[in-house]
Design a protein that fits this description.
Oligomer: single chain
CATH class of one domain: Mainly Beta
Strand content: 5-15%
Largest sheet: 8 strands, antiparallel
Helix content: 10-25%
Structural class: alpha+beta
Shape: rod-shaped
């Protein structure tokens, strides 16, 4: 027997033996396991899993660092081509016609500064000012010298410890009051009386015969025993001399006191039309201001006595004896 056939027989026997146990060995196969899980027969083809393609690898891209404020690139704006504007050349200044210079030019007068005006003379606003051109200034004539009659005119001089006052009387405006005042001065009625009431920026008052005594409670209550009819007309301006009187409630006719008078040291328009003004201070208003500003008590009586001596003198003599 040849060796080759024997080998074939042996392989046949081995193959037949393995076929009897084939049903049991298939239980552990993957097909049997899928059948038990899905309830499908083992002959059902096994489903192949869907293979999801791998996701592409993500590459982290680092963000560029922020630029400093001064390093931000300016946006590129396309403005196109702008038209070129050419400014016209400025006009040539007009040349004034040339004039021959005079051989001897006139001298130039320097302008003087405008003096400051007092508060009461402040010019009105432009909206209310007149448009009419101002008239040329009028030359002021020098004061005329006193004529013979004016020089001989009688005035009243009040002598005080603070200075003298020269009063010119107005016989035209108040003839009876002026006549009475001269009579009292000539008889010495006012001598050793005092200015018993002084108010700064208003007036000074005197002429009460009671002020010769020391009882201040009686100051302002005295008179020569009579009153004078009112002669009201002149204004109570600075330096005006007027007669005192009782108030309207007791004196409706506004008759003047027979001797008491006052001197305005400022304009007092509230007194206009109520008191008889009969004279004006023509020399010594500074003395009246000193008296008005003298120390005084709560009743406006000067603390120290300011007595007066009154005399009648010619105007020429009084002004010579009391220079400014």
């Amino acid at each position: 027997m040849k060796p080759l056939p024997a080998l074939l027989i042996l392989c046949t026997i081995l193959l037949s033996g393995c076929g009897g146990n084939h049903q049991a060995e298939n239980i552990d196969t993957p097909a049997a396991a899928d059948s038990a899980y899905t309830g499908l027969p083992p002959s059902y083809p096994r489903a192949l899993p869907v293979q999801t393609p791998p996701a592409p690898a993500q590459v982290a891209v680092a963000a560029p660092p922020p630029l400093a404020p001064e390093q931000h690139p300016a946006p590129q704006l396309s403005l196109g081509t702008l038209p070129t504007v050419t400014a016209p050349p400025p006009p040539a200044p007009e040349q004034p016609p040339s004039e021959p210079m005079p051989e001897n030019p006139p001298p130039v007068t320097p302008s003087l500064p405008t003096p400051a005006l007092p508060p009461d003379q402040t010019p009105a606003p432009a909206s209310t000012m007149e448009t009419t051109p101002p008239s040329p200034p009028v030359a002021t004539a020098p004061p005329r010298p006193m004529d013979e009659n004016d020089a001989k005119q009688e005035v009243v001089v009040l002598q005080t410890s603070l200075g003298n006052l020269v009063i010119q009387l107005n016989d035209v405006a108040a003839p009876r009051t002026c006549g009475n005042f001269r009579k009292l001065v000539s008889t010495g009625f006012y001598n050793h009386t005092i200015f018993h009431r002084v108010i700064p920026h208003f007036m000074i008052q005197g002429g009460d015969p009671n002020s010769r005594g020391d009882d201040r409670r009686t100051y302002g209550l005295g008179d020569p025993g009579y009153t004078l009819p009112a002669e009201i007309g002149l204004k109570n301006v600075t330096g005006a001399v007027a007669m005192a009187r009782l108030p309207d409630a007791r004196n409706p006719r506004r008759d003047s006191n027979g001797s008491q008078f006052y001197i305005c040291v400022a304009d007092c328009p509230t007194l206009d039309g109520q008191y008889t003004v009969f004279g004006h201070v023509i020399r010594g208003l500074d003395t009246a201001l000193k008296i008005a500003n003298a120390p005084r008590d709560n009743h406006d009586d000067p603390v120290d006595r300011i007595e007066m001596q009154a005399t009648l003198e010619t105007k020429q003599q009084a002004l010579a004896e009391n220079p400014q």
